[in-house]
Amino acid sequence: MQWNSCQMRWSPDTVFIEGLGYVSDSVAQLGDSHWQRPSPCEGWTALDILGHVGTAVGFGTRLLSGEHPVWSPREPPGAAVVGDPRSWWDGLVPSARQAVADADLTMMVESPAGRRSVADGLSFPALDLFIHAWDLVRCVGGDVSIPSEAIEFGRAVFGPIPVEQMRSRQVFGDPVTAPRDATDSEIFIAWTGRDPRWTPSAIED
Q1: Please, where are the H alpha helices in the chain?
Q2: Range 9-145 classified under CATH 2.60.40.10
Q3: pLDDT digits over 183-205, tens only?
Q4: 14 closest CA partner among 172, 147, 187, 135
Q5: Is 202 exposed, middle or buried (0-12, 13-18, 19+ CB in 10 A)?
Q6: CB proximity list for 165: less than 8 A, separation 6 or greater
Q7: 142 with 39: CB under 8 angstroms?
Q8: Segments in the chain below pLDDT 50
Q9: Among 10, 30, 59, 190, whose Cα sits 20 to 30 Å from the Cα of 204?
Q10: φ/ψ bin of 39: left (φ > 0), alpha (ψ from -120 to 50), beta (otherwise)
């Protein structure tokens, strides 16, 4: 996968940094009693979503900082969260933001997917932040309007990838048909394999 800056208005580092803010805004909407609610990701709770995102962000931060971390996600993903979920996430953001802001997008690094440029390595995690911000807010029946720049970025980067690589448990599920009155965000979420109108079967305070 090659990143072509002419195909999108936002670069991978911008998408990533903006995505961190979107996750932070979503995390702020969940109260202490919400973290065990089901999420749009089958089998995962809201806490699992946060653990998954935080694990990926922490790994990427260490990688960009010159370390050689081992990719070892927890099962369930929520087990990675230590203490108060909001405080745990807030503690990850400053160093991640700084590491990405200082990164050379052309630098080649080793990643779980092999040797690649920083730009390529950031692409999926960056988009993942917006998608999982949506997941978190849906756990409490809310919504997230994904910026058009992030949607454009996702389609430009991932659209050309072969279906057999894109549509898998590790990336995106099969696309879902969006409602006729769907917003751009809902159409994009449906493209990622999620029901854009998903809500928990019961919402309780």
Answers
A1: 12-27, 46-64, 85-101, 118-138, 148-158, 163-166, 184-191
A2: no
A3: 999 999 999 999 999 998 755 54
A4: 147
A5: exposed
A6: 171
A7: no
A8: 1-6, 205
A9: 190
A10: beta
